Amino acid sequence: MKCYKINAFVPLLMLPNIEEELKLINAPGITISKVKGYGEHMNFYSSDWMETHGRIEIFCHDDCIDSICTAIKKGVGVDDSLNGFIAILPVERMFPLTVLVHRDWTRSVDIEICVYTNRLEVISPGALQNSMTIEKMLAGQRSPRNPLIVEVLRDYRYVDARGMGVRTKIVPLMKSINQTEPEFELTDDYLKTTLYRKVME
């Protein structure tokens, strides 16, 4: 099975209803946050044209997508594009973005993403910056290597710039969805992250 990330942007008032609907279907780990922005329909009564919406992030297998999307739409109450939208992205497409943020750009070496039958390997050029270690990374310590890139991606809503992806996303989601833990291998030349496929009984 493939793993996907579901992003839903909905009116803030609808969040309690959506949460209840997602609980009824036992949806996997959910992250909810407030975001500002505008799309096709701008708020001309606001000085920056922006509105505040709720963002729901869910990581799940492909066989759960339909039920989760149905629950979100049911929570909104109407099937209307004016009340938000849902975006679905394969998780493997998110890794290039993450590696671009954290890689060492002083090295003229390509990023390597290798997909095997039982695992996904991502090799990021360069050692960890400053005094960062794998243990500190797992504990949630933050030390961005490329703060300007992070700021640009944050402004475009690709990242939240909290620097907690390993601790709050990768490790717990691998445990809950694949029942495996990611492996990190650090050398003076690269950081390799290995994500193992769920072992099917």
Provide an overview of this structure.
The protein has helices at 15-24, 65-76, 95-102, 134-139, 147-155, 165-178; strands at 3-11, 30-37, 51-61, 85-90, 112-115, 119-125, 183-186, 190-196. With 201 residues, it is of the alpha+beta class. The protein is globular. 29% of the residues lie in helices and 28% in strands. The chain is built from six helices and eight strands. The chain has a four-stranded antiparallel β-sheet with strand order 2-3-1-4, covered by helices on one side. A four-stranded antiparallel β-sheet has the order 5-6-8-7, with helices on one face. The protein has two domains: 3-91, Alpha-Beta Plaits; 94-196, Heat Shock Protein 90.
The proportion of residues in beta strands is 25-35%
Count of individual helical segments: 6
Structural class by secondary-structure content = alpha+beta
- Average predicted confidence as pLDDT: 81
Low-confidence stretches: none
List the defining traits of the structure above.
201 residues; alpha+beta; Alpha-Beta Plaits; Heat Shock Protein 90; four-stranded antiparallel β-sheet; 28% strand
